[in-house]
Amino acid sequence: MANDELLMMSGIVKEFPGVRALDGVDLEVRRGEVHCLLGQNGAGKSTLIRVLTGAHQPDAGQIVVNGNEERLNSPTDAINLGIAAIYQELDLVPELSVAENVFLGHEPSRFGLTRRHETATRARELLKGLGHGEIPPGRPVGMLSAAGQQIVSMARALSRDAELIVMDEPSAVLDPEEVGNLFRVIRGLTERGVAVVYISHRLEEIREIGDRVTVLKDGATVATGLDARQTPTAELIRLMTGRSIEYVFPKRQDLPAAAETVLEVANLSRPREFADISFTVRAGEIVGLAGLVGSGRSEILETVYGARRAASGFVKVKGVELKPGRVQAAVKAGVGLAPEERKSQALILDEAVYKNITVSTMTRFARGGFLNGHAERVAAAELTRALDVRPAGIDHPVRNLSGGNQQKVVLARWLLRDCRVLLLDEPTRGVDVGARSEIYALIRKLAANGVAIVLVSSEVEEVLGLADRVVVMREGRAVHIGPAQEIDEHRVLDLVMEGSAVS
Amino acid sequence: MSARSARFLKTATLAGLTSLALIACTSNTPEAKKTDGNATQAAAGSGSNDAPGQKVKIGFSAPAADHGWMGAITKATQAEAKKYSDIELIVAEGTNDVNLQISQVETFINQKVDAIVLLPFDGAALTPVAIKAMEAGITVVNVDREFDSTFAARTTILGDNKGMGISAGTYVCQEMKGKKDAVIAEIAGIDSLPLTQARSQGFKEALADCGLKVNNRVAAEFTVESGEKAAANLLQAAPKIDAIWNHDDDQGVGVMAAIKNSGRKEFFVVGGAGSANVMRDIKAGNTLLKATVIYPSTQGADGVRLARLLVQKKALGDLVEVEVPRLVQLYAPVVTKDNVDQYLPTAFES
Amino acid sequence: MGRNLGLVVALVLLCLVGIITAGDTFATGANVLTILRLAAVIGVVSIGMTFVITGGGIDLSVGAMVALASVWATTLATQQMAADFHWIFMVSTALLVGSACGLVNGLLVAYGKIVPFIATLAMLAGARGLAEIISDRRTQIISVNPFVDFFGGSLIGVPVLVWLFLIVAALGWVVLNRTTFGRRTFAVGGNAEAARLAGIKVQRHTVALYVLAGLCCGIAAVMLMARTTTGSSTHGQLYELDAIAAVVIGGTLLSGGRGTIVGTVFGVLIFTTLNNVFTLNNLSISAQSVAKGLIIVIAVLLQQRLAARGSTP
């Protein structure tokens, strides 16, 4: 079985100034397998992938592909060896057509002229091979869904005769149904002998699609070759975190009967996004919005926050109606938003942690416009300690933090402001399993302190596990509102899918 | 403003009094120049002025060479300085930023040069720093664009804008030979500039002398592109023309292109400034260009020579007067096929 | 100020070249003042530009605004007012005109949603055109002597122009690094959407940045008026490029979010010193432009290296 081995990486070390990102990683991938890479954010998965795809050059270690030791000096070297990657942020050109994207960089051409017809034909063949012959090769990629774009990325990898495809959290942007579709495609690939390195935070996915698992922690391999189906969850979590976590969701607390209604949303509508949404949130209560991607959940949050202007309906905080379409009005009334796209909507990535925390409370640390840097830093340091933001220290650029820690920074921002209403959009997206429970505990603690919280998540169990009450959304309408304990995952999924034409 | 125009009037009168055809007067032509053909009319006399004397350090600054004529100014200046073993010429970067040009002059002052030859981007803006240089004991020679204070320069060298118009108009009158209904067109440069207004005024006066007038007048902006545009418009407006005077040979490239495109041949064209291109065309005689009037691009070169004389305390060769004059205004001769050989060597390449 | 090390080295090297090649002139007090006086006008413009670029914008109209402010402040009417009352009329006219142009820029960018490049390009054309109309393309000569005497003079041996530059730079540094305004500038430039969702009034702030740039142009116009004793529609030619070059080699990110006043000051000084050294050594006119281009490329390359080393990807 020795020639089953496609890739051997051993003792890989990669240092950046001040950080040893990889400190002796071993990875072994066989032909035709789905090899899962597990690890918390910051464990070194992304760096490892960059080394594997030639974007970074390791400081030490060995890479053997097909039995030959190789040096990957550039992405081109990796591509030539049949290694391709599909990143979270898809690296497609939205304005170009599907076919042009598939063959970007190696267009079929003669005398420098691209051969459009051949490009289209070959792209169609590749897409058909992936079970998606319905995607028109001539359509601009920007018009495809996230799932469709992933397929195009895979077709591109195959057009380069990739033998090894790295997929970095491909399911993060997909609906459950689309995930099933993706798995069919992956199985088709492995049957052809292509190896897949699969990265995901969702253990259930790993169980379904994976063959073997390698676990990374702090830049080193802590376990390799684990059976993806048999290894107990508790064991995987222990390996990833170094501790064992039994349960994930914090206990609910009974609301005091006197808890006042803090947030009132009434008949909120925006054409083509959502219609006639009404719900209330009391102090200390967590209300969860469940529904598919595109059911209008995030849009509702942004409208409540004033980032979008409602066509009709109103939002009241403590009985006072907010001026529609004005973020400042919401912020002033004590509303905070942790948006879905943390990196592009919440954080100033190159700025220091403490500046990101104080960005909404700056005036509090200023007199006559002049900032009191010391007070500011003390307040931020206190919060980062309380929330256990790692690495400790408030002067790193936020960019260097993992997803979970970035989320903590966003929460710290609103904590500092003493928010009365906190709108959380996918608070655990891109946050690894170990850190998730910390975020959950934090959210519950905020509620216990009297904050009214609205939670949006694509993961039904997260909504059910964390929220006190649930609003189930389908195609822009609330189809059910009720206590979270009185409904289960199946019922929610039923409600969500009911009547939808997709099947 | 009124003070200024009064001052302008004063200098203008002064200009009239001391106007000199410098070309005819330079006795101090160095050996090098004599041998490269009939560069100047004749090197009359052989004054001792060219004999190497006390070392002279001269700073030179001019606007950016964004026009063929302006480029030629610096080139001619450098070439002239090379002919004298006793001149050390320091050339600053050509610039249209008065702030930078002022700084260049300040640097010259710090370097303790003996003289500064300055073609200011804007005469008024450079006046304060020129005065500063004079006060520091440096001989300032002002070229082409006048300062607005007489204390800012020891000597000023000017072209003759009105004279250009007069020369062009007189030539057109000659060629029309009394044809009373002749249609005369004029393509001016940037219209709001005083120099353009002076050129047009001279042209008008000269034409009036033989009973003609400007029937069609358009203005361009001294660039090839604007010349083409203006000429195309003119040709549209006037179905029949007898003569065109174009103020500037750089924009003239565009003017000739427009004429060529129109296929019209019923008129002749007189140029302005005197580029080598135009002179070659005049010499070849196969285009509509019959003549051009010179606006000397050797003003900077003259400035360097006068600065040298001033520092070395020498007089201008053929003048009885022992001092170099305060103002030298250059002549604007008409160049035709008959005398083109005489001017071609000093013409500028656009 | 470790990140400015490269700039310090570059400036020191340039000075060394100056001392070696033209020591007797270069290393004199008079020459240093010459360099500083040249740096002052473009320096003030560059400080304003630093704010706009840090805030994620760009201002191509600075040179035109300098021209318009100088022309407007030197019209006969303004000069008459200044002569009758005080030169402060001329100064405030220039500052007002600059700020007003900046306001228009800011409104077009923030509320008109026109990309800064285009909005300020329009202002570049418009302001210079207006300056030409007002002045009829003639240079306006300043006859208010107290104005010229004050701004053209010296305080404690240092020209007033240089003092102005120092004051504007110091204020700029404080505002950018020590105030909420500065912090918001970094936030808006670093991630406008995140800043908006954090409750910052992004549009209003953007307007303020352009007004600030316009105000700096007004100050620069006053300085140039004193230096040349004129106002002219041709003043400030290509200042936008000089300012952007100085800001960028100083280390301010052209895409916004990172900016440094100290770097900008060094950037300005490097270019003006370069100019001085070239003029002193009588080097070819075109070589100087080549050297400028090289410096820009080398400085930016160096910065990218440093930036890459400073942050883990």
UniProtKB/TrEMBL annotation, chain A:
PROSITE patterns listed in its UniProt record: ABC_TRANSPORTER_1, ABC_TRANSPORTER_2
Keyword Glycoprotein: no
Chain coiled-coil ranges: none
Topology in the lipid bilayer: Peripheral membrane protein
Main location: membrane
Subcellular location: Cell membrane
Stretches assigned to the ABC transporter domain: 7-243, 257-500
Key words, A-Z: ATP-binding, Cell membrane, Membrane, Nucleotide-binding, Repeat, Translocase, Transport
Keyword Nucleotide-binding: yes
Gene Ontology cellular component list: plasma membrane
GO molecular-function term, one example from the UniProt record: ATP binding
PANTHER family to which the protein is assigned, alphabetical: CARBOHYDRATE TRANSPORT ATP-BINDING PROTEIN MG119-RELATED, GALACTOFURANOSE TRANSPORTER ATP-BINDING PROTEIN YTFR
Protein name: Ribose transport system ATP-binding protein
Species in which this protein is naturally found: Kribbella caucasensis
Lineage: Bacteria, Bacillati, Actinomycetota, Actinomycetes, Propionibacteriales
Automatic annotation (TrEMBL), chain B:
Presence of keyword Transmembrane: no
MF term (GO), any: carbohydrate binding
PROSITE patterns per the UniProt record, alphabetical: PROKAR_LIPOPROTEIN
Subcellular localization: Cell envelope
Region (Disordered): 31-54
Pfam families hit by this protein: Peripla_BP_4
Keyword terms of this UniProt record: Signal
Primary site of residence: other
Leader sequence residues: 1-24
Alphabetical list of InterPro entries matching this protein: Peripla_BP_I, SBP_2_dom
Gene Ontology CC terms: cell envelope
Domain of life: Bacteria
Biased composition (Polar residues): 37-51
Domain Periplasmic binding protein: from-to ranges: 58-314
Gene3D superfamilies: 3.40.50.2300
Signal listed as a keyword: yes
Family: Belongs to the bacterial solute-binding protein 2 family.
PANTHER family, A to Z: D-ALLOSE-BINDING PERIPLASMIC PROTEIN-RELATED (PTHR46847)
Identification of the protein by name: Ribose transport system substrate-binding protein
From TrEMBL, chain C:
InterPro entries from the UniProt entry: ABC_transp_permease
Molecular-function annotations in GO: transmembrane transporter activity
Classification lineage: Bacteria, Bacillati, Actinomycetota, Actinomycetes, Propionibacteriales
Protein name: Ribose transport system permease protein
Membrane topology: Multi-pass membrane protein
Main location: membrane
This protein's GO CC annotations: plasma membrane
Subcellular location: Cell membrane
Species in which this protein is naturally found: Kribbella caucasensis
Highest taxon listed in the record's lineage: Bacteria
